[in-house]
Amino acid sequence: MLGDPARLPRPRPSVMTERGVFFRLLGPLEIATAKGRLPLKGMNQRLVLALLLLNVNRVVPTTDLMDVLWPDGHPPATGRKSLQNAISALRGVLARGGVPEHVAALTSEGSGYVLKTAPENLDLTRFRLLADKGRDALAAGDTEEAARLLRRALGLWRGRALAELADSGFDWPQTAAAEGARLHALEEYCEAELANGRPHEVIQRLEGVAAAGPSRERTQRLLMTALYRSSRRDDALRAYERLHRQLRDDFGAAPSRELQDLHGAIVRQDPLLAPEDAPDPRGGAPRPSADPELDVLHALLDLVRRQNRPYVVALTGDAEERQAALVARLMTELQRDDRAAVWHVQPGPDGADLAHDLRAALRRATPERPMVAVAEHLHRAGHLVPECVGDIVTEAGRTPLLIVLTARTGSQGFWPGWDRAVPRFTTITV
């Protein structure tokens, strides 16, 4: 992800440039290449591509593809021709995108069609591989490695699987299975982080899952434990009472013996519930604290992750080389610990592309994987900066995005109105 320490290249999906294409199902359907996303037009193309990818390297019968396009079972007389047009259009999308046939090819075989590509070119496959490795690490007791791998797996998700198709009422067993695997991976990630002594890292995620599935006992157990270890005993007890009511009202049942025992331990404040000595809350080996400015940047990233909210930090002053070195060191440590994704903003002449590139970074941030967007030398962008950055922070809402800006002088010196336009910011003079 990182190259020249003085300037950070744009991040790209893992190994995408080596394989030429990356198909994304874990969110809106996308085909990504080194040149950017390839355009998909119309629902027919998306439905056909989705079914082919869910059955990658397997022949999908023409009748199944027809059923997807006309789920009522009554295709028009021109139905087969419409399917052929969608197949032809998808082939054209891949060809115009510069995807070689040995990397991805859509061919007809027997009475159907098959999309041939390496399984690793699908985000769904990469998610499963990372989640399996994380699960193995957790079972082996390597909770730091488990958290790292599971965090990477969850970071591949950009929303509901095949979100735009699901929103239109289309669904497949494979997408339901993927959503179930996502929930399972999230719970295992939370298990690992609790074992690592970082309960505050997982509370917000667990609260969201618990609200969506209030009867899921494993989620509730993890949430109760995380709340208790974060000195929120009363909230942990209330979580148990909500579960008790839900199970009684919906199923006429009581919580499991395991949860009842946990509830009793919380009531007694059992010392066995206290976490073991926690490692560095940022994960990985303890980092030497030889650079106070770097410590502040790490602390702000922790804040962004905990609160799931954006924050802006401006590195200002006359020491441009020092600013560049500080940013480079931050990015090196993030890459080593895999704590966040990195996006190097290209502001363009006079900052004309700043908003566009910051929004591109914002789209790639997820609750499981915060984004650090770096924009350097913004003293050249002048008056455009405050309004642009302020708009992005407002649009980000509850997205974990840390924007790091560098400039040659103080923010108020060349960005009039900065403190009024930009909420949630810190200035570090370097």
Write the layout of secondary structure elements.
Blueprint: H1 16-19, E1 22-24, E2 30-33, E3 36-37, H2 42-54, E4 60-61, H3 62-69, H4 79-96, E5 104-109, E6 112-117, H5 123-139, H6 143-155, H7 163-167, H8 173-195, H9 203-212, H10 217-229, H11 233-251, H12 257-268, H13 292-307, E7 311-316, H14 320-337, E8 341-344, H15 354-364, E9 371-375, H16 384-396, E10 401-406, H17 411-414, H18 418-421, E11 425-429
Parallel strand pairs: 7-10, 7-11, 8-9, 9-10
Antiparallel strand pairs: 1-2, 2-3, 4-6, 5-6
Question: How would you describe the overall organization of this protein?
Answer:
The protein has 430 residues and is of the alpha/beta class. It is 51% helix and 11% strand. The strands form three sheets. The chain has a five-stranded parallel sheet, with helices on both faces. The chain is globular, with a radius of gyration of 24 Å.
**Strand numbers in spatial order across the main sheet:** 8-9-10-7-11
The overall average pLDDT, rounded, is 83
Shape: globular
Structural class: alpha/beta
> What percent of residues adopt helix (DSSP H or I)?
40-55%
Helix count, per DSSP? 18
Total beta-strand segments: 11
**Amount of beta strand:** 5-15%
How is the main sheet built?
Answer: 5 strands, parallel
The sequence of SSEs as H and E is HEEEHEHHEEHHHHHHHHHEHEHEHEHHE
The Rg value, from CA coordinates, equals 24 Å
